[in-house]
Write a structure and sequence with these properties.
Radius of gyration: 24 Å
Order of helices and strands: EEHHEHEEHEEHHEE
Strand order of the largest sheet: 4-6-7-9-8
Largest sheet: 5 strands, mixed
Bound molecules: adenosine-5'-diphosphate
Number of helices: 6
Strand content: 25-35%
């Protein structure tokens, strides 16, 4: 609690009394702490790929690597790590824009089955490489009012996680359902499920936090930034929806998103 006392005077200058301002600064402190923690995390996350790029580049420049195969593998690491750096920076910028509420919604009707057809096309290359089958169960003529670019970002993150954290030969499936509650409010339920590595129960409550990863090495190996799910959560909030997860270690995960079918005008 912070207390500020401000003396108050009448117009002609005589003393009127004190105005006391009692401010609960816990929320402000918490926000400040969160900010500085974020900056620390960001610096740490950026330093790791930069250190890898520098280390491998220095070794190559030192001229000690004469074998062409080793040299190429070092170059590949430099390339992959700079790609990850790129993704990290763009995720950090996205997240900070969203968190400052500095982001406009641009909603229009989205034809859901065409939407996933094009999502799957984008994903097919990576999925085929891992022999993962992409399946969908989506009603043919269903529309949702949403910001299509943000919807793409949501499902690109969920689908790439599903593919990344599923072993070769596994399955990734999108299921879409049209729901209606007792008061006639319509919602669309999307589930992205996989037969992958799963998430231990103890980690589930923290999975949407920035930079939280079940297994750092596994996430880094797959090029992850630790920000994908946090971005998903914020974008779902912007649509006034919910996101939940169910998962079983070594069996698979299912992320379920429910969004209102229509966005009201007050947005
Ligand atoms: P990352 O870039 O590391 O994938 P995310 O925020 O997208 O970051 O996810 C956070 C963590 O949640 C991941 O590091 C991973 O440990 C876990 N995770 C997310 N999706 C899945 C999934 N489909 N299967 C297993 N683990 C997952």
């Amino acid at each position: 609690m912070r207390v500020d006392g401000i003396p108050m005077f009448e117009e002609e200058g005589s003393y009127k009394g004190m105005l006391f301002l009692l401010q609960n600064i816990t929320a402000i402190r918490r926000l400040e702490n969160m900010r500085s923690e974020f900056v620390t995390n960001v610096s740490h996350e950026l330093k790791t790929p930069i250190a890898a790029v520098r280390g491998f580049a220095e070794t190559l420049l030192g001229g000690g690597v004469t074998d062409e195969k080793t040299a190429r593998s070092f170059l590949q690491i430099i390339y992959d790590e700079s790609e990850r750096l790129n993704r990290l920076i763009s995720d950090i910028l996205d997240l900070s824009k969203i968190e400052q509420k500095n982001i406009a919604m641009d909603c229009s009707p989205v034809h859901i089955s065409s939407f996933f057809e094009s999502m799957f096309e984008t994903m097919s290359f990576v999925a085929e490489k891992k022999k993962i089958s992409l399946q969908s169960d989506v009603p043919a003529e269903l529309f949702i009012e949403a910001d299509e670019d943000k919807l793409k970002q949501i499902f690109m993150n969920l689908l790439s996680n599903a593919v990344n954290y599923t072993q070769e030969g596994g399955k990734v499936k999108v299921t879409v359902r049209h729901l209606e509650d007792d008061e006639g409010r319509e919602r669309i339920q999307f589930t992205v499920s996989d037969t992958g590595l799963g998430i231990p129960k103890k980690d589930l409550p923290r999975i949407f936090e920035r930079f939280y990863r079940v297994d750092k090495a596994r996430s880094r190996f797959s090029g992850g930034t630790g920000l994908g799910l946090s971005i998903v959560k914020h974008l779902v909030d912007l649509h006034r929806g919910t996101v939940t997860v169910e998962s079983e270690w070594n069996i698979g995960s299912a992320f379920t998103i429910e969004l209102p079918m229509l966005q009201d005008d007050s947005h």
